[in-house]
Design brief:
Layout lengths: L2 H42 L7 H22 L2 H6 L1
Length: 82
């Protein structure tokens, strides 16, 4: 067995693993900061992060209702003649 070669490969792999670990830690830190910013934005908008799905559903319903009302207000008889 070539111990020097094995040791060299082991060292290379260890260095690669360290590099990957540092990159992952940096990315995790970046994602945590982004999460904090998003939570702050939500709170500034008056939305509790735990209630986000409920708020999305409420806003979707409001949008659909407004589209429905808008379509009902359009003069269909005039539009159909063109």
């Amino acid at each position: 067995m070539e111990y020097e070669k094995e040791l060299s490969i082991l060292k290379e792999n260890l260095d690669k693993a360290k590099t990957l670990k540092y990159k992952a830690e940096a990315r995790l830190e970046q994602l945590n900061k982004q999460e904090e910013e998003l939570i702050k934005e939500l709170k500034d908008l008056g939305v509790n992060p735990e209630d986000l799905n409920e708020e999305i559903n409420k806003l979707t319903s409001e949008i659909e209702d407004l589209f429905d009302k808008s379509n009902k207000l359009l003069p269909k008889d005039i539009l159909e003649k063109k």
